[in-house]
Amino acid sequence: MLSIPGAPTRFCDGISRRSALKIGGFAFGATTLTLADVYRAEAAAKAQNPSYSPTQQKAVINVFLGGGPPHQDMWDLKMDAPAEIRGEFKPIKTTVPGIEICEEFPRIAKMMDKFSIIRSIVGASGGHDGYQCTTGFRHESLAAMGGRPSIGSVLARVAGPVDPSVPPFVGLAEKTQHAPWSDAGQSGFLGTGYGAFKPSGPDMANMRLSSVNQSQLADRKKLLRGFDDLRKELDANGTLSGMDAHAERAMNVLMSSKLMDALDLAKEDPKIRDRYGDGKPYKFQYDGAPTANEQFLMARRLVEAGARCVTLSFGRWDSHGKNFDLVRDHGAKLDQALSALVWDLERLDMLNDVTVIAWGEFGRTPKINKEAGRDHWPQVSCALLAGGAVRGGQVVGSTNRLGEFAKDRPVTFGDVFATLYHSLGLNPETTAVVDPTGRPQHVTDGKVISELV
Fold first, then answer.
1. For the whole model, what pTM was predicted?
2. Residue 23 to residue 209: CA distance in whole angstroms
3. Are 376 and 364 in contact (CB under 8 A)?
4. How far apart are CA 395 and CA 274, in angstroms?
5. Nearest in space to 351 (alpha carbons), one of 112, 60, 64
6. Residue burial 373-407, b: 16+ Cβ < 10 Å; e: rest
7. Which domains are seen in the chain, by residue range?
8. Which candidate, 434, 398, 360, places its Cα nearest to that of 189?
9. CA–CA gap between residue 392 and residue 99 (Å, rounded)
10. Cα–Cα distance between 271 and 133 in angstroms, integer?
């Protein structure tokens, strides 16, 4: 909730005027903070990264396929394997000679020169969550001091906002019954001030200011200035006046329409919306995320408005049963949404500045179980990338004939993040954020995937 700081004053109507100045609640990570708190944290970090231009517009859209998508039924089909491993899908040719993918992704196949595949991601912890897909590290890394920050939190700290009225880190994931599948990315040891802004649910309602309209908000700004005059007389060291500046900036965000416009898909061309689709009806959702295709369009609108990192969770890929039915449903919808996103970014001349990645926490078993499903397989997984500094039309790594393990060019989660940071204009070997002990911590322990850049 945005609260104007200062001692409460009881008026004759029995209402504390400080309470009356509380406008809107914003959830960042697991903690409710004032938006002004976030801006104070931002200001405190600026001096640590003077070389990074806050207006430099590079962004990443991180699509988490929660549950663990089956690598051998998407980007790494095994047609030479026995039937109990091979599965039901056939490969189709793409626009890049020699690269074939599952028949459920015809749109992506026609744009394969824009996409690249990693078929040999190793090092998955096996946990049913997106932690490694948002940080590049395992949970235990620096757990005693709060854990590693996600890429969105790092960007919020290192780069700050492109536009003062648009949060640099936005999480679009809908709330899921299995809560880790809707994790937008944690702020870790950086603190909740660098967590994701989540515009779903109560956050969206509060962005609309509930019963507080803009004229009332303007009146509150006048009232705030009146309080400022009194409080500055009492503030010998200037601390309160500095806090007021951050509160003023937070109020300006509330009064700006830029963020709300980005989130309002009704403002988009209907033909563009149709190209993305809506992902309905939602099937195989259970305790996971819906196949909300519209979030891909919302992600594009957010980065266009100035967000540096947008995360979303798409579908529920934990296919212990009916794996092939699930992939037919989720795969077709993902094919439509991802291809539309990349097409749209290129149409707007944004593709070279926005990196898109779609991946899950692990792969799935080579052998099909008796329920026509595939079980958990942390030994190897895959990812699909496009945009930014990533060269399209590439395949990195391979698995063995049965899809059991990386045959060549194993790639770690850290390597993927090093590549993402490189694509964002940050040097992964030198970029660091300071932990609570004052020690710099590198943002990744991986190396840039040379084949992709």
1. 0.84
2. 7
3. yes
4. 30
5. 60
6. bbbbbbbbbbbbbbbbbbebbbbbbebeeebbebe
7. 17-46+206-255 (no CATH), 59-205+258-452 (3.40.720.10)
8. 434
9. 12
10. 32
Q: Residue 420: CA atoms inside 13 Å, Cβ hemisphere, count? A: 32
Q: What angle do CA 331, 334, 340 make, to 5 degrees?
A: 140
- Residue by residue, pLDDT tens for the chain (453 residues) are 443 344 444 434 343 444 434 444 444 444 444 555 555 555 554 544 444 444 468 999 999 999 999 999 999 999 999 999 999 999 999 999 999 999 999 999 999 999 999 999 999 999 999 999 999 999 999 999 999 999 999 999 999 999 988 999 999 988 999 999 999 999 999 998 899 999 875 555 555 554 445 555 555 555 555 545 544 544 544 444 444 555 555 665 666 688 989 999 999 999 999 999 999 999 999 999 999 999 999 999 999 999 999 999 999 999 999 999 999 999 999 999 999 999 999 999 999 999 999 999 999 999 999 999 999 999 999 999 999 999 999 999 999 999 999 999 999 999 999 999 999 999 999 999 999 999 999 999 999 999 999
Alpha-carbon distances, residue 298 vs 6, 275, 278, 398, 399 (angstroms): 37, 13, 11, 33, 35
Residue type, 102: C
Q: What is the dihedral of CA 157, 131, 393, 112, to 10 degrees?
A: -110
